[in-house]
Amino acid sequence: MTTERSLKRRTKLSLILFAGVLTASGIGLAHANQITQWFSTQYELVTGENPHPVTLIRPKQAPLSAMALLGKQIFFDKTLSGSGQLSCASCHSPQHAYGPPNHDSVMLGGPGLRLQGARAVPSLMYLERQPNFSIGPDNAEQENVNLNQLARDGQSAPRAQKNARNDASANNVVPQGGLFWDGRVNTLQAQASGPLYNPVEMDGGTPAIVAQKLAQAPYAKVFTQLFGPAIFRDPKQAVAEALFAVARYQIEDPSFHPYSSKFDAWLEGKTTLSRREMRGYLLFNDPQKGNCAACHRDQPTRDHLPPLFTDHQYEALGVPRNPAIKANSNPAYHDLGLCGPFRDDLTKQTQYCGMFLTPTLRNVATRHVFFHNGVYHTLDEVLDFYDFRDTEPGKIYPRGANGAVEKFNDLPAADRANVDTADAPFDRHAGEKPALTADERADLIAFLKTLTDGWQPD
């Protein structure tokens, strides 16, 4: 008769060997079949503990600098907007993981807060380690290489299939990094300028208008102390310094990168996962089931930095068109991500049309808006998309006038071949069983909830 003690010993053994999740180095694909066989039994779910804990290295906490404190005031300053009612924090709410505070697909802005933004608001959390935009792994030797040349080279380069059990795809010559859904800027300072001047967002107007408001703000004295008494004579420089201060706030304030989820505690051996959470975690890492870790990497780095749950790469997933976005009422309008309309340096690289940045899954359970166009509002809907996009597309996409399902209907017909149909779970076909059952989707959501920051032991 098998004892509970022996079950625990085998649980520890299987988890230690689990696909590199518990160690920075990982294990090879040679063991994948053996691991899958182990995970088909129940003994690995008995304890839910991490038998090989790691010490995670988090950003050092210190009092905010004067620059960051100024940036915090600017971050919450609504007067900088054209309406006087919208600040950075209005769309990037601290109470909502610095993401949108509501269920709207896109936020409203402009002079009367009646104009729709173009895309769903991403979270500002965990951007301190975001790499610069590149095609292929970020390489200092390629800083002066033309992006279009790299893109052309990438078309003939071999591409490793994305698999939750290995990181070979990290070396693929594909777009990665950068900020916004299309990676069009590389610094938090540049990112902050986008919404500030966008007429459908903060609608700040010109640098002269924004600088005048900065000069009249309660923090104007601190501003001149930091940047000199003549700073407001140069409006562009004044605004640039203000946005630099906002960037410093995001870098220094630990609320933007606390790494305080239950999963972080589990990695460090400070808690156990429930059976449902553990089942969800195994599905997350199973290349034949969720395969989530193929894009949302869950291992600590070799130098013990916590996982970011993204590989920073771009994917064309083919999410359905969102009728809630008024611009979509024009059948000629398409948001093509890397191909435009908000960046124009890759428009000729049509192989990238429809690709958007893979976001972090940290705090994903706190969100109510998913994907670049905000078409889904619950994790259940998101997992239905992954499960049924290819197996039962009629559940995901509308039917056209001819009665046929309009698959990938948010992309022009010419760009639909860019959609990923090779990597699991998108390698299935109509009529086949979906990757996950309803119970498995519930298990996976239970695991995703362990990625929410602010966890406290019972």
Automatic annotation (TrEMBL):
Which SUPFAM superfamilies does this entry report, sorted A to Z?
Cytochrome c
Q: Where in the cell is it found?
A: Cell envelope
> What keywords does the record list, in alphabetical order?
Heme, Iron, Metal-binding, Oxidoreductase, Peroxidase, Signal
GO CC terms on record?
cell envelope
Gene Ontology MF, one: heme binding
Q: Which InterPro entries match?
A: Cyt_c-like_dom (IPR009056), Cyt_c-like_dom_sf (IPR036909), Cytochrome_c_Peroxidase/MauG (IPR051395), Di-haem_cyt_c_peroxidsae (IPR004852)
Q: Which residues form the Cytochrome c domain?
A: 66-230, 275-452
Renumbered to this chain, region (Disordered) spans: 152-171
Superkingdom, taxonomy of origin: Bacteria
Q: Which Pfam families match?
A: CCP_MauG
Name of this protein: Cytochrome-c peroxidase
